[in-house]
Amino acid sequence: MFGQQVMSGLATGSLYALTAVAVVVVFRNTRVINLAQGDFAMIAAFLGIVFLKNFQLNYYLMLPLVILCSMLLGVLVERLVMRPIADTDWLTLFTATLGVYYILHGVAGWVWGRDTKAFPVTFDAKPISVFGTLVSEGHLFNMAWAVCIGLVLFLFFKYTKQGIAMRAVTDDPETAKLMGIPVRFIVLLTWAMAGFLAAFAGILLAPIVYVSPEMMDEVLVKGYVAAVFGGLYSIPGAILGALMIGVAENLAGGYLGAHYKTATAFAMIVVLLTFRPKGLFGIQARREI
Amino acid sequence: MNEMGAAGRRFARGNALEAANLAPEAAAHAQRQRLALADAKARFQKQNWVGTVALFAVAALFPVLPGVEGWMAYTVALVIIYVIATQGVAVLTGYTGLVTVGHGGFLAIGAYTSALLTKHYHTELITGLIAGGLMSAFIGCLLGLIFLRLSGAFMAIGTLGFAFFVGTIVNNVNLFEGREGISLPKNRILIWEIGDVGFYYVALAVFALTTLLVYCLVRSGVGRALMALRDAEKAAESCGINRVFYRTLAFSLSAFITGLAGVLNGHIVRFIASEVYADIWYSVDFLVAAIVGGSSFLMGPLLGGIFVALLPFFLEELRELAFILKGVALILVLMFAPAGLAEVFGRPWRAWRRNKLERVRNDGARVSRASLDKLTKLEAR
C-alpha cells in the first residue's frame, strides 16, 4: 500500500515537474510567473486529440507535430503579449499571463467545447509489478518520459551553445548582452522551451485526466508551488519539489482523505516559506544595511 | 539681481528671516507667491473633495431614481462589495508593495464570523461587521507575522496557500457546514429589518468609511511609512521605520477592509456555502481588479472593481467569447495603462491641475519680476 502510494505519487510528481521546470525556466530568464503554462499544455492535449482523431495519425507522428505547435504558441505569446510590456514590473507581467490564460481558456472552450473529452490513447489498467509494488502502465510510461525529458534538458543546458547562453542570461542579462549573446532570441527560446515542456505535460496527462479547458488548472497550481519550493531559480530544486509534493499529497490522499490533497501541498509550502523565505534552493538575500 | 536670487534660494531653504534681510521686497513676494500656491492647492483639494462627495451623493440617490428597482440596487451593492474587497488588496499590494493572492481567505473569514454570530447569537448587521472585520484583522495580523520575510512571488504563493488553507477548513470542519451552507435570516440594523435598498445604503456607508480610512491612511505618516517600505525597504528601515510593525499593520488593515466586504457579501446573499468561499478565483480577481484600476490611486479599486465585476455581467450571453474578450481587455489595459485605469482617467484632471498651478507660479514670477524692475530702478536712483 505504502510503496504503491509512493510510486503513484512519483508518477504524478513527475508530471508536476514538467510544469514546474517550465515555470522556473521562464521565470529566471524573463521575471515572468507564467500562469498560462497550464493552458499551453491544455491546448497541446486538444491538438493531440485533433491529430489522432481527425487526421488519424500515429502517436509518435502526432507527438512532434504537437510539440512544434506548442513551441509556436509559446513564441507567439512572447512576441505578441510579453515583449511589448517586458520593461514593466513583474506584477504587470504576471497579470498579463493571466490575460493569456483567459484567452486560451476561451479559445479552447469555443473551438472544442466545455465538456470533457476522452483521449484516444489510453493505457492498460492492469498494473505491473516493479520491485514488489504494483504500478499502472500509464504511470510507468509517464515516468519514463519525464526522466528522458529531464536528461535532454540536462544535456541541453550543459553542452549546447544555446543552453549555456540561456544560463548566462539567467545569471546576468546585462553582461550576457555585452558578451554578444542575443538576449531577445534567448528569451524567445525560453518561451519555446516552455511550449515544449507544456506539450509533454499535456500529452502525458491527457490519458489520466479527461481533456477539458480546466484539465491543467490544478497541475499548474502544484507546478507553481513546486517551483517556489525549489526556490524559483533552480531546475533540480523544482524537480525535487514536484516529486516531494506529488508523494506527500498522494500519501495524504491515501491516509487522510482526498480533500486534503491540495491542502497538503500548500501546508508544505507555507511551512517551508516560514523558515526559508526564498525556497529550498533559493538565493537567500542577505539583509545588509 | 544676484541678491534677489540668493534671497529666493534662502527663502526656499526656509530661512525667511535671512531672506528678508537680504532683499525685503523679494522675500515678501516669495512669501506671497508661496501663499498663493498653498491657496491654490487648498482650492484643488477642496474640488477633489467635492468630486468625491458628489460621487457618493449620486450613488446615494441611485435607488430612489425613477425606474430603478430593488434588484438593480442589489446588483450595484454587489459591485460595491467587490470594490471594498479590492480596496483591502490595494492597501497591501498598492501602498505596501506586498502582492497577495489570498484575500479570498479574508473574505471568507469575515463572512463566516458574522454568519456564525448571526446564526447562533442572533446578532444584527453592525455587530457582525465589527466582529467580522476585527476577526479578519486578527488573522491578517498573524499571517503578516508568519510571512514577515516573504516578498514578491514567494509572498504571492504564500498567500495563495492561505486562501487554500481557509478553503479546506470551511469545506471540512463541521462548524462551517461545508457545502450545505448556512442560511441567514432577514438582515437587521439594530432592530430594524432592511431589504435590498436598505442593504445598498449599508454597503455604500461601509464603502464611504473604508474610502475615508484609506484616504486618511495614505496621507498620514503611517501611509508614508508603508510607501517608503514599498519603494526602498532598506533605506526606509535605516531611517527608523519599524518594518515589522508597519508590515503587520498593513496586513491587518488590509484584512480588516476585505473582512468587512466578506461580511457584506455573506449577508447580502443570506446564504454562505464553502463552494463560494473556497474558490481561489476570488483572490485572483481581487488582485486583478486592484492592478487594472491602479492600486496606488484612491479611486483605482473603484474602477478596477467595476471592470472586473461588470465585465462578465455584460458579456454573459457571449459565453466563451467573454473569456477571450476578458483576456484581451486585461492585456490591453496592462499595455496602455500600466499604472492602472485611475491613472488614465485622472490624466486630464492632473494635466489641468498642473497647468493651473503653473499659471499661479508664472503669475507669481511675473509679479516678482515687476517688483525686481522696481527694485533695480530704486537702486539705480
Explain the layout of strands and helices:
The complex is a heterodimer of chains A (289) and B (381).
Chain A: H1 2-30, H2 37-54, H3 59-82, H4 90-112, E1 127-130, E2 133-136, H5 137-159, H6 161-171, H7 173-178, H8 183-205, H9 217-229, H10 235-255, H11 260-275
Antiparallel strand pairs in A: 1-2
Chain B: H1 2-12, H2 16-22, H3 24-61, H4 70-95, H5 103-121, H6 125-146, H7 152-172, E1 182-183, E2 188-189, E3 192-193, H8 196-219, H9 221-231, H10 233-238, H11 243-269, E4 271-272, H12 274-277, H13 281-293, H14 300-314, H15 320-336, H16 341-380
Antiparallel strand pairs in B: 1-4, 2-3
Strand content bin of chain B: under 5%
Measured by residues with Cβ under 8 Å of the partner chain's Cβ, the largest interface is: A-B, 46 and 45 residues
Strand order in space, largest sheet of chain A: 1-2
Low-pLDDT runs of chain A: none
The secondary-structure element order of chain B is HHHHHHHEEEHHHHEHHHHH
Q: Report the radius of gyration of chain B as a whole number of Å.
A: 26 Å
CATH topology of the largest domain in chain B: the name is ABC transporter involved in vitamin B12 uptake, BtuC
Helical amount of chain B = over 70%
Which spans of chain B have pLDDT < 50 for at least 5 consecutive residues? Answer: 11-15
Shape of chain A: globular
Number of domains of chain B: 2
In DSSP terms (H or I, runs of 4 or more residues), the helix count of chain B works out at 16
Question: Number of helical segments of chain A?
Answer: 11
**Helical proportion of chain A, percent range:** over 70%
Number of strands of chain A: 2
For the sheet with most strands of chain B, the description reads: 2 strands, antiparallel
Q: What order do the SSEs of chain A take from the amino end to the carboxyl end, as H and E?
A: HHHHEEHHHHHHH
Mean pLDDT across all amino acids of chain A: 87
Based on DSSP secondary structure assignment, what is the total number of beta strands of chain B? 4
